[in-house]
Amino acid sequence: MGSVERSGRVSPLAVIGWSGLAVLLVVAFLSALAALNQSIYGASNFVERYLEEIANDEITLAATTPGVALDAEQLAALGLPGDVSTAMLRSGVISSGPEDIRITDDVTHDDGTHTVTASYRLGDTITDTAFEIEPIAPLYGVLNRWAFSISPIAIIDVTAAHYPIFTVGDLQLDTRAHKTGDDLAAFTQTAPYLAIAPAVYSFSYDDVLLTAQDVVTVAAPGSRTAVTVDSQPTPSFVERVQRQLDQYLDQCAAQQVLQPTGCPFGEVVDDRVISAPTWSISTYPVVTLIAGATAFDMPPTEGVAHLSVEVQSLFDGDVSQLERDSTFLVSLSATIQPDGSIAVQLK
After folding, report:
1. Which residues on neighbouring strands pair with residue 324, listed in sequence order?
2. What is the number of other CB atoms lying within 10 angstroms of the CB of residue 283?
3. Is the N or C terminus of the chain more exposed, i.e. has fewer CB atoms within 10 Å?
4. Residues 195-231, buried b or exposed e (16+ Cβ, 10 A)?
5. Could you tell me if 245 and 320 lie in one domain?
């Protein structure tokens, strides 16, 4: 039998077939890439993902979104110190985030930037916000990446009136954290805080001695808002001050003299005193406290002390028992010390 010869040449039809397949694969890849860049890696999805992270209380992720953090130059332009507090950029702080999020518009500009408009409900209000987005170095050189060209971060200036500590969410903060010198002693403190936005925040304070009503504020993207946490004495605070005042007056009453030393009451008797004067407090001044410039103050408040003493008339020598009420006024200031005690200063 004769041998069969095989040709090493590839037929033109095969070349055309494989080339066509390769072209189809490239086209499919490019189409898939374009679809990814329009959807998962699109500008609209970038904004939607940021808002959803806030809604899910994933604040750390939202805060690390490109374009959210402010650099030193941006902080300075906003009049903020370089060490401005970022303590609120964590989970458990916001009261609520955006809900019912929808992207309503995505406008592409000639320079490649986008204006993405999102609609969402924050609290009881439906809001539309336009976010400015810019492209940054692509992922693996082919997948779009984005950044906020204008940071959506908010600034909240918190005034802690009459006590430096306040609560936001489950976080307790001290407005003196970055202060030194005389600023530490101020009765009312103010400090700026960076806050993720959009979100709702609830500020308050409550402990044994002081309490402040909840203050709810909405932080809109790029906004600067002010909040005052107004701490006021609790009944326990007033009770402790009352106890100290009563003890002080009792010590005054224990002095068996007509003019007790360092005390708000005393009497002058024209007759000869022939027994040790005895004092008692008939009416203790009722403590009321209002916030002053440097402390909680009690305005001048009336009390009554009673004097009992035996006297002899200089006119005819008669001996009698003198019983006399002595009305007096007392005022004071009260401050909370670092150890939690209350310092009372009489005025």
Report:
1. 307
2. 13
3. N
4. bbbbbbbbbbbebebbbbeebebbbbbbbebebebbb
5. yes
* Phi-psi region at 160: left, alpha or beta (left = phi > 0; alpha = psi -120 to 50): beta
| DSSP H or E segment with residue 177 | none
- Nearest Cα residue to 82 out of 207, 165, 184, 192: 192
Residues 172 and 280 in one domain: no
**Of 271 and 39, the one with more pLDDT:** 271
- What is the DSSP secondary structure assignment for residue 181, as one 8-state letter? G
Q: Structure tokens of 156? A: 């909240």
CB contact set of 207 (below 8 Å; sequence gap of 6+)? 234
Which DSSP string do the residues of 1-58 spell out, in sequence order? -PPPP---PPPHHHHHHHHHHHHHHHHHHHHHHHHHHHTTTSHHHHHHHHHHHHHTT-
Cβ–Cβ under 8 Å, residues 303 and 174 = no
Whether residues 23 and 139 fall in one domain: yes
Q: What is the pTM of this model?
A: 0.84
Q: How far apart are the C-alpha atoms of 29 and 14, rounded to whole Å?
A: 22
108 and 84 in a common domain:
yes
Distance CA 305, CA 248 (A): 13
Q: Please, are residues 149 and 113 in contact by the beta-carbon 8 Å criterion?
A: yes
The answer, yes or no, to whether the previous bond of 198 is cis (omega within 30 of 0) is yes
Digit-coded pLDDT (tens) for 230-285: 999 999 999 999 999 999 999 999 999 999 999 999 999 999 999 999 999 999 99
CB 111 within 8 A of CB 121: no
Residues 247 and 282 in one domain: yes
